[in-house]
Amino acid sequence: MSEVEELPPGLPRMISDRYEIESLIGRGGMADVYLALDHVLSRKVAVKVLRPDTASNPMVVNRFRREAKAVAALSHPNIVAVYDTGELPAAEQQHERLPFMVMEYVTGKTLKQVISQDAIDAEFAVKVTRGVCEALDHSHANNVVHRDVKPANVMVSDAGHVKLMDFGIARALDNSATMTQTAAVVGTAQYFSPEQARGEQVDFRSDIYSAGCLFYELMTGRPPFTGDSPVSVAYQHVGEIPPAPSEVAQDVDPIYDPIVAKVLSKERDDRFQSAGAFAAALENALNGIEFHEDQSTPATYTLPIYGNHDSTESGFAAQAAPMTTEHPVFTTHDEPVETTRHRTNRGLIVLLSLVALLAVAIASFLVIRSIQADAEKRAPVAIPDVKNMSEDDASSLLRDATFNVRVEREFNEDVDEDKATRTDPSSGTQLAKESTVTLYISEGSEQRTIPKDLANQSETAARDALRQAGLEVGEVTRENSATIPTDWVIGTSPELGAKVKAGSEVDLILSTGKVQVPDVSGMSRDEAQKALEAEDVGLKAQFVEVETNDYEEGTLFTQSPEASEEAAPGDLVKISVAIPVPEPTPSETPTPSPSESENSDDSESESPSGTASPSPSETQQGKLPPPAKPGEGN
């Protein structure tokens, strides 16, 4: 996005009267990141804004806020800092408040980009891992576990500094907070620890395991485990040993193999107990100092039974009996034989031997019992059948069977909503204790009914109703309607009350608030008035009489507005009605006097035979000149 392009609907150019958005620089699973200018401190910052399509999900909003809260409590040069947080108000284009956070702007590449583009040597790998470990040490000292350490969440700035970011699923270290409480395994499959894969409680050593996976990929170019699905990768984290880095990449020095083996141990107590210890071992290996496990154990003292020993070795001033060829009973000596001392030593030896035998028996019993307990622990257990149980009952039954439970939801036509549909692996399968079993809960039928009461509602109300019904809004079209206000719903496509698949798009048909003027030409007055004032038209008729001989009397020949034009309900339509033009009224002819009658007779007698004298009307109409009176001449 350049500076001249418009921002997404609902995102203002200026946030909090301080941060001016300039361009889009990144897009994640739940939020977009924009480059902005802080006008108060005159510096570039990164503004992370939750996207409108995820803002309605409370889990996503809580995760976003938890990230801001977790990072705000940390202050370290290897952690991307958070400067400010807030919420954008709801707008016409989006109805949810959008949380945002203002972060440190880092120019550079993610470690994922570096791995895909460049060949990485051991010195750079150790340097990056040391920066991540220093960030984790600070985070762990503040009781914050990141839980998603991976190359995509590590930035390498242009100056070469390492920055750990995205604490979106971090949480405070709390013994009461376990992974199973959220009914979901969080993290990224290639990098999360065995305890995360099993859905168990996590601690700082889970982050150290993930940092080990990151170092493994830096050295070899690939994560320690890969697979076709996250589930298969998770199973490998739990039950398989990754190959040594020197076996995967021939140019890797085997000096790093024992360090990687320790940091990727399945049991947390076998790993490095701090991120700093892991980083220190890598630094020593880089300098040629091999890593060795501390195998020092206290020496076991063994009491000598036979032979000559001095007091410094045995702790006893035992004196050897004199050697003789005679039986001691019959031997005579100048000095008395110290038989009491010999009996004392012999009794002590017997006592110590009995103690040793008892210790061996107890140790053997404990070893055998430990082997039996381990065998019982590893003995597979059948997964119980939980179909049609409630989520709580099904989860309790599975936990009682020593399984960890991960809950997911799915549509099912045969099982009622909020009831268990199945497990993965399926019921009856033999599985090791403390394995993770996925419990599927029904969301009911996948078919959703388009609400019938959408008609005559506002567009906003209709959108909310469709969202609550598990449907999406598709195209919006408009039709004329005399009874429904402008931009209110006339109907839908598919039609109201129809059943559709969950998540389907439903097109809205909104009212324009206008009607199409009907054509009333050739109708009678009554027919035209009924057509215009019909319920689905709602117009008013006004008849205007117009004199014309071009149409028969009573004919409707023009209208305004014209037919097919649009008008608002209640508008007046003027219609011209033909009436005949009235004929002109003729003028009255005056009665002639006697003298005029004589003159008229004379003139008739004087006129040529067969020629009629003009009638008075012809004279009046100017067709012929009037006859001359006496004395007036011709």
- Order of strands in the sheet with most strands: 1-2-3-4-6-5
| Helix amount | 25-40%
Architecture of the largest domain, according to CATH?
Answer: Orthogonal Bundle
- The CATH superfamily of the largest domain bears the name Transferase(Phosphotransferase) domain 1
| Form type | elongated
How many extended strands?
26
Beta-strand content bin = 15-25%
CATH class membership of the largest domain: Mainly Alpha
How many domains comprise the coordinates?
5
Total number of helices: 16
* Unreliable sequence segments: 170-185, 295-342, 600-634
What name is given to the CATH topology of the largest domain? Transferase(Phosphotransferase), domain 1
Task: Give the mean pLDDT.
Answer: 78
- Give the termini distance in whole angstroms: 106 Å
Give the biggest beta sheet. 6 strands, antiparallel
If you compute it from the alpha carbons, what radius of gyration comes out, rounded to the nearest whole angstrom?
51 Å
Structural class: alpha+beta
What does this structure look like?
This protein has 634 residues and is of the alpha+beta class. It has 16 helices and 26 strands. The strands form nine sheets. A six-stranded antiparallel sheet has the order 1-2-3-4-6-5, with helices on one face. Strands 7-9-10 form a three-stranded antiparallel sheet. Strands 13-16-14 form a three-stranded mixed sheet, covered by helices on one side. Helix 3 (122-141) runs antiparallel to helix 9 (275-286). The longest helix is centred in the middle third of the chain and has 40 residues, at 339-378. It is elongated. Residues 170-185, 295-342 and 600-634 have low confidence and may be disordered.
